[in-house]
Fold this protein.
Amino acid sequence: MTIQKLSPYGLLFLSLILSFLISGKAQAQIDPGFCAREHPEEPYCHVMMSLIGGHLNQLGVGVPMASLPERLASRLQGHFPGLDLAAIRVGFSDRQPVGNATTDCNNIYFHDRYVLTEIQSMLFSEQDDFYWLLHELAHSQQCAQLGQDEFRFRWMQAARGFVWRNPIDLLIGRLDWHDLWLAVPLEQEADEHAWKGLSIVKGFHRSVVTGDTDGDGREEIGSFEPRIGRWRAIQGGNWAALGTHGQVGDIGLIADVDNDGTDDFITYTPGTGRWIAKNRNGTTLRTLTFGRGEYMPFTGDFDGDGTTDFAIYKAATREWWIRSGLNGFIVNRQLNGLLGATALVGDYDGDGATDFVNYANTNGFWSPRRADRRLIFLPRWGSRNAYLPLAAELDANVGSEMVLYRLDTAGFYGRTPDALLFSNDTSTWTNRRLQPFAADTNGDGRDELYVYFGRTNIVQLVR
């Protein structure tokens, strides 16, 4: 499910809930002892399980299923620990409600055939489609962790409780599927997990990029579309001469590789660890091999020598490696943060050198660390699965500030280690798949905060 599509069982539930509550008649293959054994306190357990089981049985009749491409599965594995992606099957079912997908542990049924085409080709035309796949895989992970029957029960119990509390409002149209979706914790968890995946598992959809590519002291905002290797300026700049630069699965970055005062365009190919940097005229400036599929790429001046360095991070083992832009290594296998943390970079102590950071999604701890391996500070700010972290220069003091972007409100929060700077500056857009980012577009030395909507390739200034 994505926010613009119905929750996996939302349309089904809204259309059948009245008959379900009245008669409770449905057929399904379920564990006959599950309700009595696990939830004897729930009188509607057997009816709920029969209803959802019967729907899933019908979805799978005569549906050809296909595996995820190996290359795509290998990139996704680190974001779905414990889930056997080799066992996941995807398929099209004309019994699936329009604009909807349903997950039953290892089987994901889509209504739209083009999503299957994009999965097989790994050419996601829009972020939304890739997000939809991540969301359904998050449900598969929930199912694997809870067990199939418990996963079904928890979803149906939350949805039934919502309908039970709001029958009149639903009948007269005062409440809709989005309200139902918000009432199901499994949906919210899957949505947040998928949202984070868009920033972690890059390379299959359009993403926002920023940099001063013309040397005027102001950053331009643009996008990189790995589907065709296209870089497109959205606000400021002219990147037309660059042409296409990149391939499917590449991750796009912008940094000053040749130290001439203007930022350059970099592609990183996860399968080979190949970096290729070109200037705005399309001239190749540098190529190197550093990393491989499970690593995320970053750039920054980690040793403070004024030259862009290259960094890679492996989420599964918390390993950072940093390679000098000139030669040799600055950091050779440094561990930082907790497993499952979100990685980012920024100058948190204001010394002019980039630090590498892990933000723990489980407890809100930030752990910025210098290249000499010294921990700068260890504040706790944030909460479980509610925020995405950013680094930005927001005030007159040197050094990056901590920024959190709240997923459910599209609001920004900023602080230093000592004080809160601002709270809940919110975008007027409500789409939960907005990409937050920071950029100094006016050249005053301070970053502005933006959100980016990939489907329409537009940005909005928030602060």
